[in-house]
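How a chain folds remains the central question behind the approach discussed here. For one protein, we set the task of working out the structure tokens from the amino acid sequence alone. The sequence in question and its structure tokens are set out directly beneath this paragraph.

_____
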Amino acid sequence: MKDRLPFLDTALRQALGVDGDDVRVTMLKGDASSRSYHRVEIPGHDPPTAVVMELAVDPLKSDEFTDWDPPEYPFTLVQRYLARGGLPVPRIHAARPGDGWLVLDDLGDATLESVLAGLPVEGWTAWYEKAVDLLARWQDWWHRSRELNPVAGRRFSRKLLAWELDHYVEWGLEARLGITLDASERSALDEAFRPLLDGIASIPVGLVHRDYQSRNLMVQDGGLWIIDFQDALMGPVVYDVVALLCDSYVAIPERLQESMLERLRLQVDPESDAHTWRTWFDMQAVQRKLKDAGRFVFIDRVKGNPDFLPHVGQSLEHVRGALGRLPDLAPLEDLLGGLGGLDEH
């Protein structure tokens, strides 16, 4: 293990005051990121375990489009801000991004996804209420601390949203179906995307986690903890609730989805119209879930990880459902349907 983690002794000495020879290290199951995670068990120490985050060779580089130049490693930047607001995020015991590591609190292995899997659907409501209420706290903290916001300069711009749709076209449409769009098809698709992007541009902006879903909410002591927040940015106020309620990993009943969307609206924007919020939600769901479908194929074809391919179908199911409630986007629905882009191949 020391051959794989030459920084381990230094990390543990600086973070916890223990020697690497006295610990047991287990590599944790990774996600779609370029980071790796290792659980460190420390006999007789308080805390008895910690998690070492092993960073990519270039930790500031992203394989997704970005036009933001952060002043420091985004995870530490955002964690400090969220912790200041009392939000439940893991503590950082020590951080040396330049050397490729951080040492964090160990929040265990129970994700919201895994907890829901062990419950009947009727038992999900209380957990989604907690997740939505936590998201409302997230937005409230941003409203109260805008002058402290460390990612004010990083935005879900139209350019970024369009890049994600291009990502879907390249991977979720052409690569997945083994086709190549000709110039007229691509032009028609870009034209059909335009009103979607116009609509999303009209949605009020808030602080966005960017991947607020069941695998990034940890369950500990009956509460939820937020992880994987390093990509936070300014974006559509409904973006995170779309990620939560149009989850690619958990099939949420429509009635529960509707009630949780309304629960959030009443907390963060009670003077708004419920129909308007639903329209915003559906527009964002189309864009986000098309992006997810393409991303899952990209992760398979480029990163060699097929684990996310089974979730393409549910992502597209969310797209179909949302488009069915958006008559103004009927041309996009017809075009994607004709190309096979909404089929679960």
About this structure: The beta strands are 24-27, 36-41, 49-54, 92-96, 101-104, 205-208, 217-220, 223-226, 233-236.
